[in-house]
Design a protein that fits this description.
The protein has 247 residues and is mainly α. The chain has helices spanning 3-12, 28-49, 56-63, 67-74, 77-97, 108-125, 129-138, 145-149, 154-170, 182-195, 197-202, 211-226.
């Protein structure tokens, strides 16, 4: 082969790393980024205005893509709702309950405070969660209710109630509390104020709900509720008076 021809061929052939990628094929990382953006936008819109009032076109516009892309990644609305529950809500639930170990013997007071802290942590990372919880899970006819209830870790909830019951029998937790209802009370104390914070902020004369203040407030309420009330003091019976001796 002519050396000059070989040299010219090498000079005109770009290195493999500089060759253009074939058109029409997206990288897997690009697909993942678009899908995550669509899922994030859908979750936010569902929390703000409700699932029934949110269209695929609105989700696409919020994500900066076409409506066809929403169908490409999620096929239909039902698949999208499944993804919201499985990849957003179920992960939040798992994080909250990860602080409730399966073994017994944990300090009940610390267990409850950790649960409160985890609820505030997850709602700080996922600020859409309280509003979506109120709109689509708690409210009658919520479109996520059945999907979410199917993913509630019933076993962990029962273990939590059992540990509180054990602590009550040990004398370290207020016996007047209903152990199975304690988590229901905690989630209401945390989620309801956060879900309705905008209402309180816009209503004249009502106190503003700030996350840190609410955290301190809920912690104090729960801590006080767990304390065993002091035993009522029994009044001492006065000694009978002795009559005066008569002469």
């Amino acid at each position: 082969m002519n050396p000059r021809a070989a040299t010219a061929s090498q000079a005109t052939t770009p290195p493999a790393r500089d060759l253009p990628r074939p058109r029409g094929r997206r990288r897997a990382s690009d697909d993942l980024a678009v899908r995550e953006r669509l899922l994030a936008c859908a979750t936010q819109l569902f929390a703000q205005q409700g699932i029934a009032a949110t269209t695929m076109a609105q989700i696409a516009a919020a994500a900066g893509v076409t409506s066809a892309m929403v169908h490409y990644y999620f096929t239909n609305r039902e698949k999208l709702l499944d993804a919201v529950v499985e990849e957003r809500i179920a992960r939040a639930i798992a994080f909250v309950w990860a602080g409730v170990p399966g073994r017994g013997g944990e300090d009940a007071h610390a267990l409850v405070q950790d649960l409160v802290g985890r609820l505030f942590d997850v709602t700080a990372r996922e600020p859409w969660l309280p509003a979506l919880w109120l709109r689509e899970i708690v409210n009658e006819g919520g479109l996520l209710r059945e999907r979410v209830l199917a993913r509630v870790p019933v076993g962990r909830l029962q273990q939590f109630a059992q540990r509180i019951g054990e602590a009550q029998r040990e004398g370290s937790v207020n016996p007047a509390l209903e152990a199975p209802l304690l988590f229901v009370s905690i989630i209401a104390l945390v989620m309801l104020p956060l879900a309705t914070a905008k209402v309180w902020q816009t209503a004249r004369g009502l106190p503003k709900i700030e996350r840190e203040a609410l955290h301190r407030h809920v912690t104090a309420l729960v801590s006080a509720a767990l304390q065993v009330p002091p035993a009522p003091s029994v009044p001492s019976t006065p000694a009978p008076r002795r009559g005066r001796n008569r002469p």
